[in-house]
């Protein structure tokens, strides 16, 4: 079992996990591209693989930022359309537990990330070792909220013990951060989420919450780097070395 730990080389771990995820990609696939720093390393590695080999894939990105990175990397992009299913989506996570229940949305792309995860046959998470936790909740749980509904959403989440905070722009201004859909982002400080499924049901019932950052029952596997070691996690199973993992795709 991987235990949570801090590392002096998180960026190197992210790179290792992202590059290991390339083993899941096969020519002809339609790939979902996640958002965040680790997903960015995967996008760069995928673009490099396309340029240096005969790998042929098409992709859709979960955020405008990832879309721009994919275009720079030379990855062919397709627009959303009816009937579109992804063979594989590779995305990061802010937290993941032994059952591969996830907290996502630290970068504000939780809605599009969940749309692509749900439209994918296989969701692969890439992460550094600090993202592995024994219980979800240490990382603030993101919500995407319709601006008009914000006061009532804050009241409802506070009643659940979530200590909600409206996210502001990273430039330290008082301006509220917004998603790619121009909705507000709210961070909920539950500290511990012992029953993620129960909390998800409560949040889904609050009018004005467009999406929450609990991703439950969606990930088939996670590639996690710990130092120089890269492991594959699956729900309820012991970790396996990524180099020897038998990819079921």
What does this structure look like?
- 26% of the residues lie in helices and 22% in strands.
- The chain has six helices and 14 strands.
- The radius of gyration is 18 Å and the shape is globular.
- Helix 1 (10-20) packs across helix 2 (37-52) and helix 2 runs parallel beside helix 3.
- It has a seven-stranded mixed sheet, sandwiched between helices. Strands 8-9-7-10 form a four-stranded antiparallel sheet. A three-stranded antiparallel sheet has the order 4-5-11, covered by helices on one side.
- Strand 13 and strand 14 (240-241) form a beta hairpin.
- It has two domains: 10-132 and 216-244, Rossmann fold; 141-211, ACT domain (Alpha-Beta Plaits, 2-Layer Sandwich), CATH 3.30.70.260.
- The chain has helices spanning 10-20, 37-52, 64-73, 110-118, 150-159, 196-204; strands at residues 30-33, 58-61, 88-91, 95-96, 102-103, 123-128, 141-145, 164-166, 184-188, 209-212, 214-215, 221-226, 229-233, 240-241.
- By secondary structure, it is of the alpha/beta class.
